[in-house]
Design brief:
Length: about 450
């Protein structure tokens, strides 16, 4: 075997002998990489940065500090899941008009995967994101980056809106259950006290009359609240339901309802029906009337929500007055004790009912503030149309090809040298344990 030790002169001599093996692969690979680099199409990159402000919406189930932290962390954690979801990618494809030539499900899936590979996301800091889109068309790259930001913000707000609405519905249901139990318990206590009304003081009888009047007012408010809640559910279906049969029927029902601006809606709806009989829905006047109706429906929804916000506290105030009157009757009945079990149930349900009212108000506050949550997303770095291609990096490709060519040439030289059995130096024959008899000059001296 040959010795693994070489002098600098031997190494130089080695590469002089094998310089063709070193140069030829380097030149070939560099040329191929250069040709490939200049044949590759230009790719343009456009990016946008979104800042998510801390969410200060209260959650009735957790503390304020935890609510602030968890809401922001939820957005950060679900960022990639939203951006790379098939639904978002499909919306992006439709908006950019990329799916016109796809016919089969396999082609559509391949297009979704290709678009997904063009998207790069980056979490910058604890509360900001960056979305980058790569495309051969610079204008399309800018449009795609802006669309991705808007789709992310819209999807996030939609999900949070659904969650807040479900929380409100849950607490409304629980509050109604507790209210019914509280009403039953209160009526049982009141019934026991009324059984002794003949022996009760005169002032107690006055209190009973006041309680009956308060109950009548509560029943009236309940009727109004029920009507407002039903109409509000109808109003929230617009503008999506405007062009459906169910939506048109809802409009006719709304104009007859006893809610604010119903008379104005009646006039607009009559004119709208008249125009539809004569013109198509695309007629400018018809579209103008639709916008007016939608604006009016929005005002009606705000007015109904405002009435609900006023009526509910009034009901709770009346309930508080009724409970105070009942406490006065109980306190004045010194010699007439109410059944202890019923009194205990009444106290428990009253406490739970009061606590649930607070939680419901917090949930409604979360929902109302969440509907304006778009202000929490700030695009601090809007997407711009790139003027210089970001890919391919031609110089890097050529230099990489040169490095790869030199590396391949070096390996070729080493392999050729290891396989070469030519004897050039005394130590090349020493491995065979044979003596050196003479040296033949190489002609250079």
């Amino acid at each position: 075997m040959r010795s693994a030790q070489f002098t600098l002169r031997e190494v130089i001599a080695l590469f002089r002998r094998r310089k063709k093996l070193l140069i030829i692969p380097s030149v070939i690979i560099t040329i191929l990489c250069g040709i490939g680099a200049y044949l590759l199409p230009n790719k343009y990159e456009s990016s946008t940065t979104i800042l998510v402000q801390r969410d200060e919406i209260l959650n009735p189930l957790i503390s304020y500090e935890m609510a602030v932290t968890m809401a922001s962390e939820d957005r950060l954690r679900t960022f990639n899941e939203i951006i790379y979801s098939r639904t978002i990618l499909q919306q992006l494809i439709d908006s950019l008009g990329l799916g016109a030539s796809t016919r089969t499900e396999a082609q559509r899936q391949a297009l979704v995967d290709a678009v997904g590979h063009n998207i790069t996301t980056e979490r910058r800091g604890s509360d900001s994101f960056r979305i980058t889109y790569l495309d051969s068309d610079p204008a399309r790259a800018q449009r795609a980056a802006a669309l991705m930001a808007n789709l992310f913000i819209g999807t996030t707000l939609h999900v949070e809106g659904q969650r807040n609405e479900q929380a409100v519905q849950f607490f409304e249901k629980k509050l109604e259950e507790l209210r019914q139990k509280f009403e039953v318990s209160q009526k049982e206590v009141l019934s026991l006290l009324q059984q002794r009304i003949s022996t009760a003081p005169t002032e107690n009888r006055t209190l009973y009359v006041q309680i009956e009047n308060i109950e009548k007012q509560i029943n009236d408010i309940d009727s109004r609240l029920k009507v407002y809640q039903l109409e509000l559910a109808v109003l929230r279906r617009f503008p999506d339901a405007l062009h459906t049969e169910e939506g048109k029927q809802s409009l006719y029902d709304l104009q007859r309802a006893e809610i604010p601006f119903a008379a104005d809606l009646r006039g607009l709806l009559a004119k709208y029906d008249d125009f539809l009989r004569r013109y198509t829905p695309k007629y400018p006047e018809v579209e103008k009337l639709e916008k007016q109706m939608l604006n009016l429906l929005e005002r009606m929804r705000n007015a109904v929500e405002s009435e609900l916000a006023k009526q509910q506290p009034q009901r709770w105030d009346l309930e508080k007055q009724r409970a105070q009157l009942l406490d006065e009757i109980k306190q004045s009945s010194v010699n007439q004790r109410v059944d202890e079990d019923k009194e205990s149930d009444y106290g428990i349900y009253r406490k739970l009912y009061d606590e649930m009212k607070v939680k419901l108000e917090q949930a409604r506050t979360s929902r109302d503030l969440g509907s304006k949550g778009a202000n929490q997303f700030i695009i601090i770095d809007p997407a711009l149309v790139p003027t210089v291609p970001s890919k391919p990096h031609r110089l890097q490709i050529v230099l990489g090809g040169l490095g790869l060519g030199l590396f391949m040439g070096f390996l070729t030289v080493m392999l050729k040298e290891l396989l070469d059995t030519t004897i050039r130096l005394p130590r090349d024959i020493e491995v065979y344990q044979k003596p050196v008899i003479a040296f033949i000059t190489d002609g250079e001296e």
